[in-house]
Amino acid sequence: MVPAGSHAEFMEDLSSLMGDTDQAHALSLLNTGIRALPSREDGKVSAANDLLAAIGAIGPRDGLEAMMSCAASSLFQNAMSLLGRSGSTSLSGLSDVRLNLSDKLFRQFLAHVKAIDSHRRQAQAQPQQHIVVEHIHVGQGGQMAIMGQVQTGGGGV
Fold first, then answer.
1. What's the CA gap between 76 and 68, in Å, rounded?
2. Count of C-beta atoms within a 10 Å radius of residue 73
3. Residue 51: CB partners within 8 Å, gap ≥ 6?
4. Is residue 77 within 8 Å of residue 19, measured between CB atoms?
5. Can you say whether the dihedral through the CA atoms of 35, 41, 45, 51 is positive or negative?
6. C-alpha angle with apex 67: 62 to 70, nearest 5 degrees?
7. How do residues 112-152 score in pLDDT, each as one tens digit?
8. CB 44 within 8 A of CB 2
9. Residue 157's pLDDT is what?
10. Residue 85 has what DSSP assignment?
11. Which among 41, 36, 82 has a CA at the least distance from the CA of 55?
């Protein structure tokens, strides 16, 4: 996703990927996310593409989700990096330290994913309409109809 076309096209695509976030904010999130990634032999372009692919997989729908998606993606990539390097050391205890750190990052990643899910559920929830009837007056000769299920509190009709 790193620029193949014009700058304007890239910025539009980036903004769309980030949940139609303001272009400057979307670019700021991308730059911040790239800085939060572990160093890679294949460079920052590959890291940026991986970060964008991960954010795209989450599919943020607004600016808040874009921020959480960027953070979650960075957490995941750092956790995977530590996990991959945990067995590649001969130093006593370093492997355990890396495994513990990767576990903590995975927990934070999961917390971010849950927060995104919670945010989406709240955004989709339709407000419930409640009608409270406090008094009913029926005049002489009048009729009253109650539609639907009626439950009493146990102390009357």
1. 12
2. 24
3. 30, 33, 34, 37, 70, 73, 74, 77
4. no
5. negative
6. 120
7. 999 999 999 998 886 666 677 776 767 677 666 666 565 65
8. no
9. 43
10. H
11. 36
Q: Which amino acid is at 69?
A: S
Mention every residue, 6+ apart, whose C-beta is less than 8 A from residue 87. 95
Contact 47, 40 (CB under 8 A): yes
Residue-wise burial string across 103-113, b where 16 or more C-beta atoms lie within 10 A, e elsewhere = eebbebbeebb
The C-alpha atoms of residue 48 and residue 32 are separated, in whole angstroms, by 11
Tracing tokens 């096209």 back to the chain, one arrives at 9
Contact 49, 86 (CB under 8 A): no
Please write the tens of the pLDDT for every residue from 9-48: 999 999 999 987 789 999 999 999 999 998 888 888 888 8
Which residue ranges make up each domain of the chain?
7-124
In single-letter form, the type of residue at position 77 comes to Q
What tokens does 23 get? 């272009």
DSSP 34-96: HHTSPP-TTHHHHHHHHHHHHHHHH---SHHHHHHHHHHHHHHHHHHHHHHHTTS--STTHHH
